[in-house]
């Protein structure tokens, strides 16, 4: 029996869909994100709840929403010092459009810049996972203290830096203390953050190094169940507004195409 | 009298600073954004308040904070259909890092994609400014209705599209209605949004075209006092979380380096 | 009669091919670019012939190949002074991969940077086209001299810069003279370049401003028949090798994540 | 004795130059690349000689220049199939500017795409270096054959792919044969390429897999003394012209903002 064209078309399409997604379903006049019509989300959930919904697939408990909001706020800006901000502003000065400049700023995160959050999350999550696999959950703070000691000793021995500790501009980064306090307030202070605090105690005693913003947020986000692979993503969500503000400032306050480098800033080698 | 080296250094530096900024002041152990120490902002202001503070230089009234939050939520995602999302996922499939893929997604906003918000804000702000310059503030809705009629007639005559109206996937975009309702709730429904609504009424009658998300947000953001040049920036803040979610989905659910194009998807011309 | 599945599939595909191209046909074990099997091009044509073939669809006469080669060589590098090179190197310093850094350098070309070639090509091509449309081809150098005079007068009157003339680092850019000489040698000196030379003569007399590299190449590429929309593209082909060299130098000679901005490079405003 | 301001300024500058480079020295009216005034290079050296000069710091012998030219030509284009080309064209369709689209194409090279050249160069260079360190230079082809056998056995054992062999669209890539032949003609066929050929012989016999363009160029570029870290850079130099051609084709032949994805291309999962 002959089959109709439409039947065949549908069969072919079902058999070989080019794209699949669980994030948002788009139909004429309907946009459903993670199961919720967007018109029901607008005005009803906060931006941090939206971020959580998109990344984890569900609307968070209130404490988690408040904590994520604080994490995002903490990443807001570090002035002119980050290379990513310099890149965004140099691009702005050439007259590149706003989106291109933000894009350039984000592309500037290399392994030495903005990678510490993921590095620290990865370390803490791996340490806890290995610990739990071999010992069951930590039954006391002493377990975490031993784990911290072992970790610090190993890194010192190998001359390796521990990501999330030390800052090239601050001896005492003013943000992690407030973050840890906020985590306690919102019941998001768990074993990962506790471990990070013990590591800080040891590093402070031995080398005079303190936890930085990445170390604090690495612990907190891990305790909230975020996979370390989202670290740079979450950092970017927090940092994009400042990039936009810097780009606008460069475009409106400074002379277009100003010279960032003068002849006598350059030294020639052979 | 001889002058000391330090004095000269300082003089030279003051005379010729390479960078200047009013956004964030960074000193050892102190990070002050728009006048506020960051440790006082973390845990105390919402993310949308932070966005407002960075862009406009002050913490907003509660209604404005809630409205901006709703605007950001409304831009969250449109599934696989936007070219920017396709670009971000294709890049994710090649194994490019998260930040590169987000960067690629944002770079994909060209004049035909994601420009309608700025276009619509620019139009509404220009219309109102010209109106106010020649007539003083609109004294009644009738003034705005006339302005809307004049605008629509002119555009129809020239065969020009009005940015912020019509959608290539939806006859009736489900988001603008909720946004306008929310604007009324938070006292952010002003002359720009009212003008947009009158334009919609006319376009709906004449051409069966409705306001889209960009038209609604253009009116609202204009009524909140945002310069149109921030349009794409605000859109990007709202959209980045979805890009991150799509990139993660592509990296974890799909086969790496999958074929987005098959031999028989291609037709050769001379 | 029933139709077979394969027939239907083929019909559907032919009816709705997603992509079409005339550049390169790819079949199993065959890659045909602009009609030539690639294995016949490798070892037989020069890189500039390949560029010409890709862009214009045919292999050029020898003179055009040599001239294009000279144009590409002339765009090679301008040291540390271009913002695009600074961006590429700052990104290299963060540890971003080579391709990301080149990408960032190219994204840095905004309307004030690297746009002069297209601007100059566009101007010269428009001037000649308008002239030819109204007068037929220029019958003598006097015609071109008048056109140059008219152009310069109009720009001076409006206070507009003429793209392709003047340089922010050089009074007398050393490259255009050699380019014009080379164009004469390879029989690529036509009306566009002649017009550019007349404009230079006038600007030099009136304002002490000379032709720069973009003005010379704009004339020459226009005389070779390149549409002005390829200007930035051709410039990028010439510049990419230097970006790669700078990125490698940054990565191998400098300390990773070096500070491009020190505390006292920054001045805070309110 | 008092020191003059100028003296101090110069001392300070010499003591702390912000940038240093050996590539191009720029002074008013003089641009010296790798020791050569650019006006002496224009019209006198080929583009591949310029690439070599920028990367390796000297003008190559004629054979090397011809060989590098052939390598660059071989990377020209692979039609619509590479994700980087799809990204560049999707971005072109949104109306993004030419340089942004090229930038997006290049940013799309992730670890699964366009990394095989560097991977293959790295492998061949490491194999030869280890061999030479322990055995002195290979004294006969038999030495290289043993090294190839050892390498293939190890990879097969670990189930690892050898970069530079096998192609997802071609059983027999038409380019490597011509490249190897050209390398012999220009005296650039050395131990690295010979080793690659032996590896191919073994893989063909055991698994029916042949050398691809990256394997051939990896051997040849290694024999020409290019550090493997330049692999992706050299590939990009060769590929940029095609990206420009594709972007122009998309912008001029296709409808702006065409739909690359239709509703029924998408399948929704939970």
Brief account:
Four copies of one chain form a homotetramer. By secondary structure, chain A is mostly helical.
Descriptive account of the structure:
- The structure is a homotetramer of 270-residue chains.
- By secondary structure, chain A is mainly alpha-helical.
- Helix content of chain A is 59%, strand content 6%.
- The first copy, chain A, is built from twelve helices and five strands.
- In chain A, helix 4 packs antiparallel against helix 11.
- The model of chain A has no long low-confidence stretch (mean pLDDT 94).
- Chains C and D meet through strand 1, strand 2, strand 3, helix 2 and helix 3 of C and strand 1, strand 2, strand 3, helix 2 and helix 3 of D.
Topology overview:
The structure is a homotetramer of 270-residue chains.
Chain A: H1 5-15, E1 19-21, E2 24-27, E3 30-33, E4 36-37, H2 38-41, H3 47-56, H4 62-74, H5 83-93, H6 98-107, H7 116-135, H8 141-158, H9 174-185, H10 191-207, H11 213-223, H12 231-253, E5 266-268
Antiparallel strand pairs in A: 2-3, 3-4
Helix pairs in contact in A: 3-4, 4-9, 4-11, 4-12, 5-6, 5-12, 6-12, 7-11, 8-10, 9-11, 10-11
Offer a few descriptive terms.
270 residues, homotetramer, mainly alpha, 3-stranded antiparallel sheet
